[in-house]
UniProtKB/TrEMBL annotation:
Sections of the chain in a coiled coil: 13-79
UniProt keyword annotation of Cell cycle present: no
Gene3D superfamilies named among the record's database cross-references: DksA, coiled-coil domain (1.20.120.910)
Protein name: DksA C4-type domain-containing protein
Positions of region (Disordered): 135-181
Keyword Coiled coil recorded: yes
Length: 181
C-alpha cells in the first residue's frame, strides 16, 4: 500500500495539532458564552418577550456552533489516529494517496476527489474501509465471521385429506346430510 513518508506525516501532524489546539480553545469559549447567556436568561426571563426570544435564538445558535466545533475536534482526533496508524492521506474509497494540496486545505479529509466522485455517483457498492474490515474479520478467525449459509428448505408436506377429523369430536352434519323424518 502506498502511503506518505514519516517526514510528511510529521508535518501533517504538526498542522493538525495546531488546528486541534485552536478548535479546543474556540470550543471552550463557546461553552463559556453559553453558560454566561444561560445565567443572564435565568435572571430576568419572562420580563420582556422580545428580549427573551432574542436570547433563545442566540442560545440555539451557540449550541449549533458548539456541535460543529465538537465535530471538528473529533475529526482532528481521528486524523491524528490515522497519522499514528500511518494510513493518513490514503483515500478510504480508492485506497490511493490523497493529493497533498487537498490534505493541506482540508486536513481531516478521508477521501480523494476521485473517491468522492465515485461514492457520490453510486459507482461503488463497497468502500476500501469495508474491504479492509472484511479482511480484518477473516484474519481474526472463522468464529468472528457470521456465515451466510442458507438453511435447506423443509421437506414438502404430503397433501392433507379432504376431511380430517379431530380426535374426540364428532363431525357435524351439513343440511344435505340431515335425515328427513
Amino acid at each position: 500500500m502506498e502511503r506518505y513518508s514519516d517526514e510528511d506525516l510529521a508535518i501533517f501532524a504538526e498542522k493538525i495539532k495546531t488546528e486541534y489546539a485552536l478548535a479546543k480553545n474556540e470550543l471552550a469559549l463557546l461553552r463559556d458564552q453559553i453558560s454566561d447567556l444561560s445565567e443572564t436568561m435565568s435572571e430576568g426571563f419572562g420580563a420582556d418577550m422580545g428580549e427573551d426570544s432574542g436570547s433563545v435564538s442566540q442560545m440555539e445558535l451557540l449550541n449549533e456552533q458548539v456541535l460543529r466545533k465538537r465535530d471538528q475536534v473529533q475529526a482532528l482526533q481521528n486524523a491524528m489516529l490515522r497519522i499514528k496508524n500511518k494510513v493518513y492521506g490514503v483515500c478510504s474509497v480508492t485506497g490511493k494517496l490523497i493529493d497533498r494540496q487537498r490534505l493541506e486545505a482540508v486536513p481531516t479529509t478521508t477521501k480523494s476527489v476521485e473517491g468522492m466522485r465515485m461514492e457520490a455517483s453510486g459507482e461503488l457498492d463497497m468502500t476500501a474501509q469495508d474491504i479492509a474490515r472484511r479482511a480484518q474479520e477473516r484474519r481474526e478467525g472463522p468464529n468472528k465471521i457470521i456465515s451466510k449459509i442458507k438453511k435447506p428448505l423443509p421437506p414438502p408436506r404430503s397433501p392433507e385429506p379432504a376431511e380430517r377429523k379431530k380426535p374426540g369430536r364428532k363431525s357435524r352434519k351439513t343440511e344435505d346430510e340431515e335425515d328427513d323424518l
